[in-house]
Each structure stands twice: as C-alpha cells, then as structure tokens.
Amino acid sequence: MADEFPWCLTIDVPFPTARLATIAYNTLVVDEEPKKSDVRKTLQLLQNDTVLSIHFAAREGRLLRSATQSMMNFLRLTIDTMLAFPDYAR
Amino acid sequence: MTIAVGFEGSANKLGIGIVRDDGIVLANVRHTFVPPPGEGFLPRDTAKHHQQYVLSLLQQALTSASLKPADIDVICYTKGPGLGAPLVSAAVVARTVAQLWDKPMVAVNHCIGHIEMGRLITGAKDPVVLYVSGGNTQVIAYSMNKYRIFGETIDIAVGNVFDRLARVLNISNDPSPGYNIEQLAKRGTTLLELPYTVKGMDVAFTGIIGKLETLARTNKYTKEDLCFSLQETSFAMLVETTERAMAHTGATEVLIVGGVGCNKRLQEMMEVMVAERNGKLYATDERFCIDNGVMIAWAGLEMFRVGVVTPLRETWCTQRYRTDEVDVTWRD
Q1: Residue B194 has pLDDT above 80, yes or no
Q2: Shortest Cα distance, chain B CAs vs residue A62, angstroms
Q3: Which annotated residues bind substrate (chain B) (predicted)?
Q4: pLDDT of residue A36
C-alpha cells in the first residue's frame, strides 16, 4: 500500500501558544480529501499541542504539489485571521 | 437581542453580512471578482480573490455595524452548493473567528439563504419562489418543513446562458455580464427564434446557448437582438413554469431571488402573469438579489433560534447541496 502513495511531505508549523495551534488544527482538519482521492492528508498536534503537523502522501508528484499549495493558502488564511484580531489571539 | 454574522463565498461574490433577530440589517458588504471580457471566473482565481479580500471585508462589516466581535452571537457560513475552494476560503475564516471569539456556528444552504432573505426583505409570507442565478434555476414552494423543488433546469442555469453569451459577444463582466446584457437587450428590436424548452415543470437552456453561439458566428445579427431574444425566450419559460407552480399550490405570491432576479425585464414579465392571477410579485434589488452575506446571516439566525448549531468538526463545505435536503424546522 505504501508504494501506491510514494510522494510524501510533512510540514510542521510552530505556533506561539497551544490555543492558536489548536484553532488552526480545528479549522484545517475539517476539509477532508475526497474519499477516492489520490492524496491522503493527516493533521496532528505535536509538542504539547504547540506544533501543527501536516502530512501528505500522494500517488503523483503533481497531486502532492497542488494539495500542498492549497493547504498553504488556507493555513495562511487562518493565521492572517488570528493576526487580524490580536486581542482575541492571545 | 441575537446578532448573526454571515460569510458567503460560493461563487464570484464574496459577501459578509450582519443582521439582528428583529430583521434589521446592520452590515452588508461585498466584493466581486470580475474576470476580463471573454473569460469566466475559474475556481482557483475566485478562491484567491476571496482569500485576498475576506479579512478587510470582515473589518468593514464590523465597522459599518459599529460592533465588536463580543457583540456577535453566532457565526454563519455557506456550506454549499457552490465552488469548492471559494466556499472553503470563506469557511476557514468563519471557523477561525468562531474559535477566537468563542461563538457557535451554523452551516447554511445557499439557496435557503436566498429564500429566507427574500421573505425578510419583501415581507412575502408563503410565496412560490423562482430562484434564478448563474448556478441555479429552481421553482420552489414550501410544504411540510421542506422547500420543495417543483421544477428546475435539467441542464445549465439560466444565468449561465447569460454569462456564456457575454463571453461569446465579448461583453464586459463589470459589474456583471447579466447587467450588461439587460442594457443591450433594451435596444433590441427583432426577436430571433430560439429553442423554447419546457418539459413539464422543468426547463432546459443548452439549446438556447447553442443556437445563440451559431447565430453570433454568422455576424448577421446585432448584439442587441441576441440579448433581447435570449431574455424574451428564457424569461417566458421561467414565467410559464412559475405560473404552473402557482396553479398547483394555490399560492398568490411569487418571490424572485438570485442574481438574475435583479433583471427588470424578468420582473416585468412575471408581474404581468401574477397580476392576471390577482397575485402579488415580490422582488429585491441588487443589494439583496445578488449573493451576499446577509442572506446567510439571516437564514442561519432563523435556524439558530430554533436550536440548530453546527459542531465545528462538521463545518465542512459541499459543492452539491440541494434545497430540499434541508429540514425547515423554523417554519410552521
């Protein structure tokens, strides 16, 4: 099975607090890849919930690239939202 | 007093609205992605647009309502139907602020949003609803806790024909292709024959766009006549099916919602039919017809008042989400 998804990438994103890392996790974990998709995505919280770790495995390189690109855009959007409301993001 | 904010981004319009439970609209801000003439809006570019503008729009909405995040009671967002990445772009911000501000969320069906806001703004009580936009064409009536689809397009949405004709004729997409077609149609003089396809309660439009493309390629017909003929033919089809739904349900009210609902000629043709039946026509202007955040905030608020809350883990989006899938628990 592992050989069917040879294209892998893990992105670890550190956050200043466990609360913000958890908010990012809860926001991004909702959108699952389609069931029959050729990309698998796993999200988890590491290091006392302060690091958001996103793991991708894909059948083809181009699929890994597009899935990663899309995730990076949404990751940036949730972080920008936190930055837009600093009083609530402590 | 309960206050809801609504995020809408299912197509090329990004809207944020804030509404109070007595129906007062506190904010209604929108930013539209306008592609160059000859081009449609692609999901990737539209998502990028929404991501670029959503936070400034949210600040603008809060400022124009003179509210702080703490004043908000519930965060509503469009679950679908619509384009995947644009929907998720709005939902990501909705989920994030719901957690930052510690507020519950409500997932809203886009079509239900149009209907509920149309009822709020016009005061229509139990209308037959004609929902016409770039992505949807449905004749709807309420019965026993569902908005039931009496008729719909069996191929493409009526607004999609307008969008595609605008591309073929290189008509500007600013402010919208439909608006510019409506202006050109006013100067049309000759009605060209187009396929009038009504099958029972359903309608079909691919025949019309195919014929229009063929006619446009001959260069024998003016843009004005092509636009005029499109409006007269497609609107007649919509009025016919709406009339049949009125006859079937015994309803005396008709409510037109969705972006194509702004079209004055459609409203005029519908008015003739409704008046003949001694009924009343309700329509809204571009502030509310065109996709906006208030419709999502208001429908979400109605749901929230009867106890509907969407757990964060279930706040996903879906490209397909039919109007009649939703249990309408907030109406008798």
Answers
A1: yes
A2: 16
A3: 131-135, 163, 178, 182, 263
A4: 78
Q: Is B250 annotated as a binding residue?
A: no
Cβ separation A77–B85 shorter than 8 A:
no
- How many degrees, rounded to 5, is the angle at CA B83 between CA B78 and CA B86? 70
| Other CB atoms within 10 A of residue B193 CB | 9
Q: How many angstroms separate the CA atoms of B231 and B319, rounded?
A: 28
Would the CB atoms of A23 and B100 count as touching at under 8 Å?
yes
| pLDDT < 70: residue spans in chain A | 1-2
* ipTM value for the complex: 0.96
Q: Any idea which residue has 């605008």 for tokens?
A: B166
Task: Give me the CATH code for the B126-288 domain, please.
Answer: 3.30.420.40
From chain A, pick out residues whose CB is under 8 angstroms from the CB of B58.
84
Pick the CATH number of B3-114+291-325 from 3.55.50.30, 3.40.50.12280, 3.30.420.40, 3.40.30.10: 3.30.420.40
Beta carbons of A81 and B100 less than 8 Å apart: yes
Q: What is the DSSP letter of B65?
A: T
Per residue in B205-257, pLDDT (tens digit) is: 999 999 999 999 999 999 999 999 999 999 999 999 999 999 999 999 999 99
Residue the block writes with tokens 């469009």 = B78
In chain B, residues 65-124 whose CB comes closer than 8 Å to chain A: 69, 85, 88-89, 91-93, 95-97, 99-101
Q: In Å, how far is B154's CA from the nearest CA of chain A?
A: 26
The CATH homologous superfamily for domain A2-85 is Alpha-D-phosphohexomutase, C-terminal domain (3.30.310.50)
The confidence score (pLDDT) of residue A1 equals 52
Q: Can you tell me which residue has the tokens 């309660």?
A: B201
**B3 to chain A, closest Cα gap in Å:** 19
